[in-house]
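Narrative of activities, Objective 1.

The group set out to show that a structural description can be obtained from nothing but a protein's sequence at a throughput compatible with the screening campaign. Below is one input-output pair from the validation batch, recorded exactly as produced.
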Amino acid sequence: MTAETETAGGAPATEGQRLPVLSARGMVKTFGRVVGLDGVDLDLYPGEVLAIIGDNGAGKSTLIKCLTGALVPDAGEMFIDGHQVRFKRPQDARDAGIETVYQTLAVAPALDIASNLYLGRERRRPGFLGSVLRMLDKKGMRRDAAKTLAELGIGTLQNMSQAVETLSGGQRQAVSVARAAAFGSKIIVLDEPTAALGVKESNQVLKLIEEVRSRGLPVILISHNMPHVFEVADRIHIQRLGRCAGVVTPASHTMAEAVAIMTGATTLAQTPGGA
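Output recorded for this entry:
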């Protein structure tokens, strides 16, 4: 007899089907008379890069903020591994295994690389020194930070005691992504990770995204850079006017077709790969 599992949408799925790590159903968010999200559905599957694209005002940032606890949706449901969740603050999402890297490069420039990796999660030294004197285990954090960066293939950062303010933009972004990969047990969300970076630094970040995916960790990538999206994404969620205009893949649609759907010049059903 075929085993069945109840999916987020309520329909049974056979054991052989992939079940999403994250599902959102009917997400609605309004700001007065402005509709940020109008019934958006989203699925993120294990080991994939899901890109979210859309013009300014399409609802990309609002959707991500609702998924990561920065905003509370007015309506809709969210599920992680089939279990319903409700985030009221970003820490709730972090506790559930979702790590977010924002476009603004949320690093502390005056701190070193290891301190940034463990920012907000600092470890105490064992025994009396840690429990009573509250001393940090700086040596252990530097050792484990170096191990994390090495596992992600980040070879340009060797000295964990180096201040982040001395790093390039791409290296700073690598530290942010490494922190997310180290502590994101379920999902990593990257908001415009290559914005304001040069070609070489952008390529480093894209390779890092591929490395994270190869470890089986799913990634949500928000980007305006279509070549980057088509280079690393497995599926592309297209937002338009607060709604999902469709989900395509780099194999089924060209860059021009994705942009046409995004701008409303065409619909998904009208494109060659559309339903």
